[in-house]
């Protein structure tokens, strides 16, 4: 199987989406000249080219693409060639409206934008696979080809009749017989029993709350239906290409619509698009924290280096107010991705469009042209990346795992729960943020993963856990592992059936809790006082310990005097439970205490606030996320790969500055280790 090393060939990939169909052949030549000037070595071509490649059913128009690929190749620029199937041409929807998706109300989602396809439509699949086959036959052996890029940001949903038929087939395979489905869905409730497979439909708009297990299965089904589209195209392109061409599809960041663990297992290379909001700065570091979380997740999905397939050179166009990136920010966030395992830095897009819905989205080459400051920044970054060539293929050290899973997310964010304020990705982000801020590097892991290589495992909130996951967690702690477990975890089984006793008995045994009797969610903005002087928000619980020690208790309200944060020794290990969302400083302190007890150390103890420190491939990346210069003390002398300067006792990072430090004086730019560093 091809991997990312085949694509990078020892050099970080640098480039972006390139849409030559929007430009003239004269401009293509200018593009090539400027790409070379900027150090671009990868162009993602063809993402939205279907209507140009197949202007009418069955027609083929490849001449322009032949020329573009040859031009790129002559300039020694590699190509990530995309199948154009994310955006069918208008003729497909006009002639075959059954290929268009329908929403929960049965309303058609029309052409005129993009992504208007029903993943279950046999005709969509047929046309998509035909154009994919012809593209792969023609370019599978093109010397410029480095990566196959399938579709773009899969994530559509459809509730149409064709999807209903497909959903039924999927359900038959999952449950085999209807009694099993009725049992799993709990259809004795509200007279929902199904008497024949034909009665089953997607959870369309109903009079009141839809069946939760049906909603959950529909999420699973939708992810699987899209995955079938991906694997079909993947197999076609692989069959027509040499073995060293990896296949990927670009994920949206922390996206709920696809089961990311299942999808990643089907890819040669995992890639993602990251668009943090540059409007948030030092006071609210959600931008870089988001980037760090998505990078950690993608690296964990990839089990190693990954591709940043898209980021913005400056402003995006899809927020209410779209701020550009201030001087230094594009570089800082790019190098953050490299620090956290990326082997490619690509952008949407190379040249800014002059027409269409994204004409106000920034690009590597902006409307202001090659003399702009924005293009200068791109050129500077391209030049700098040569010095980091040695990091490609190397791993990131992480001693902590954060458990994360999509079905748990889907199930806990449904209506009819104890609180509509509960927002799974926000809770995950809060816990990751607390670790990130103190440079405790973490991987994300599937709840059933082998956790034995991690010193500490944290579970921000996993409402739904399988038996295998619960058994694995218990064994991990029994064998000496340390866990910190957040509220509303282990409540349901994979059918969304509440576990006996309200929270799984195995988990309660690990946590040393007799019962978690009632959930006491807090209203938006409401807090509850804790007896250590801090507060909790979002949630609280009525716990009764059986062996666990209350470390912090509620100090007000109905639960006053009852335990809030507990600690329990189980087997050789320790299990902490957190029944509320501690205020950020308290969550940080709690995780710091737990990490210290577990022997998991921050990357650079004593690093000043605002400085991110990550180790990758034997190098220490230091990133200043503030607008002020910061001096970072070093424990041993280092030299900076980016500047070539030695640093004996400390290193000064300018506003948004970065240092990539090697503990021994560098002889050149390719001195760092190429060994993987996974804790696993
Ligand atoms: C996504 C898409 C791109 C473009 C960008 C804009 O990542 O894949 O085609 O629309 O968003 O930010």
CATH superfamily of the largest domain: Glycosidases
CATH C-level class of the largest domain = Alpha Beta
Task: Work out the radius of gyration.
Answer: 26 Å
Structural class: alpha/beta
Strand content: 15-25%
Counted by DSSP, the helix tally is 18
The order of strands across the largest sheet is 5-4-3-2-1-9-8-7-6
What ligands does this structure carry? alpha-D-galactopyranose
Number of strands: 28
**CATH topology heading of the largest domain:** TIM Barrel
Q: How many structural units, i.e. domains?
A: 3
Biggest β-sheet: count, sense, barrel? Answer: 9 strands, parallel
Silhouette: globular
CATH architecture of the largest domain: Alpha-Beta Barrel
Average pLDDT confidence is: 95
Distance between the ends: 22 Å
Give the helix proportion (percent range).
Answer: 25-40%
Q: In terms of per-residue confidence, which ranges show pLDDT below 50 for 5 or more consecutive residues? A: 666-680
Q: Would you write up a description of this structure?
A:
It contains 18 helices and 28 strands. Helices cover 31% and strands 18% of the residues. The longest helix has 28 residues. With 680 residues, the protein is α/β, with parallel strands linked by helices. Helix 6 runs parallel beside helix 9 and helix 11 packs across helix 15. The strands form six sheets. A nine-stranded parallel β-sheet has the order 5-4-3-2-1-9-8-7-6. 51% of the residues are buried. The structure holds alpha-D-galactopyranose (GLA).
Quick recap of the structure?
With 680 residues, the protein is α/β, with parallel strands linked by helices.
């Amino acid at each position: 199987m091809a991997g990312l090393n085949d694509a990078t060939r020892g050099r970080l990939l640098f480039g972006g989406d390139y849409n030559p169909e929007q430009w003239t052949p004269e401009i293509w030549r200018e593009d090539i000249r400027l790409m070379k000037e900027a150090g671009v070595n990868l162009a993602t071509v063809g993402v939205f080219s279907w209507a140009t490649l197949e202007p009418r059913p069955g027609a083929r128009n490849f001449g322009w693409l032949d020329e573009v690929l040859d031009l790129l190749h002559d300039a020694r620029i590699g190509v990530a060639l995309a199948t154009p199937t994310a955006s069918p041409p208008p003729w497909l929807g006009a002639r075959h409206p059954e290929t268009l998706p329908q929403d929960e109300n049965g309303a058609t989602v029309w052409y005129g934008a993009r992504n208007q396809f029903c993943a279950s439509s046999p005709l969509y699949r047929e046309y998509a696979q035909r154009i994919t086959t012809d593209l792969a036959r023609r370019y599978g052996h093109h010397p410029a080809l480095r990566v196959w890029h399938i579709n773009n940001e899969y994530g559509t949903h459809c509730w149409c009749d064709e999807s209903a038929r497909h959903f039924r087939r999927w359900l038959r395979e999952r449950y085999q017989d209807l009694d099993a489905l009725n049992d799993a869905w709990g259809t004795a409730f509200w007279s929902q029993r199904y008497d024949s497979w034909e009665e089953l439909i997607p959870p369309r708009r109903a009079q009141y709350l839809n069946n939760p297990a049906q909603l959950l299965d529909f999420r699973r089904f939708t992810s699987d239906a899209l995955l079938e589209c991906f694997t079909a195209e993947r197999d076609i392109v692989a069959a027509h290409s040499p073995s060293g061409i990896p296949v990927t599809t670009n994920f949206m960041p922390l996206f709920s619509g696809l089961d990311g663990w299942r999808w990643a297992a089907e890819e040669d290379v995992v890639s993602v698009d990251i668009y943090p909001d540059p409007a948030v700065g030092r006071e609210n570091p959600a931008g870089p924290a988001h980037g760090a979380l998505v990078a950690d997740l993608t690296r964990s999905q990839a089990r190693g280096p990954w591709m940043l397939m898209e980021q913005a050179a400056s402003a995006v166009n899809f927020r209410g107010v779209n701020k550009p990136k201030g001087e230094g920010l594009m570089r800082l966030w790019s190098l953050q991705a490299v620090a956290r395992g990326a082997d490619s830095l690509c952008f949407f897009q190379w040249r800014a469009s002059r027409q269409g819905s994204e004409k106000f989205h920034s690009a590597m080459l902006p409307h202001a042209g090659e003399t702009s400051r924005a293009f200068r920044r791109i050129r500077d970054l391209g030049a700098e990346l040569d010095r980091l060539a040695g990091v490609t293929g190397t791993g990131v050290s992480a001693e902590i795992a954060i458990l994360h899973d999509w079905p748990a997310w889907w199930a806990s964010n449904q209506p009819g729960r104890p609180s509509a304020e509960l927002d799974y990705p926000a809770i995950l982000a809060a816990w990751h943020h607390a670790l990130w801020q103190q440079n405790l590097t973490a991987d994300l892991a599937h709840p059933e993963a082998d956790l034995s290589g991690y010193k500490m495992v944290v579970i921000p909130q996993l409402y739904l856990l399988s038996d295998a996951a619960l058994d694995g967690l218990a064994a991990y702690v029994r064998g000496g592992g340390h866990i910190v477990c957040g509220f509303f975890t282990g409540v349901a089984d994979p059918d969304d059936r509440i576990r006996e006793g309200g929270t799984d008995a195995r988990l309660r045994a690990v946590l040393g809790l007799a019962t978690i009797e009632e959930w006491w969610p807090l209203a938006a903005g409401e807090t509850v006082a804790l007896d250590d002087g801090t507060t909790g928000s979002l949630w609280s619980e009525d716990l009764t310990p059986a062996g666990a020690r209350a470390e912090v208790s509620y100090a007000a309200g109905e639960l006053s005097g009852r335990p809030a944060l507990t600690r329990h020794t189980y087997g050789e290990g320790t299990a902490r439970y957190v029944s509320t969302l501690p205020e950020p400083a308290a969550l940080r302190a709690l995780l710091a205490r737990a990490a210290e007890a577990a022997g998991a150390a921050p990357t650079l103890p004593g690093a000043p606030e605002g400085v991110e420190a990550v180790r990758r491939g034997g190098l220490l990346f230091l990133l200043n996320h503030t607008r002020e210069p910061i001096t970072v003390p070093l424990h041993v002398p280092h030299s900076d790969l980016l500047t070539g300067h030695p640093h004996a006792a400390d290193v000064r990072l300018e506003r948004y500055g970065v240092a990539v430090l090697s503990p021994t004086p560098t002889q050149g730019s390719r001195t760092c280790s190429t060994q993987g560093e996974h804790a696993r």
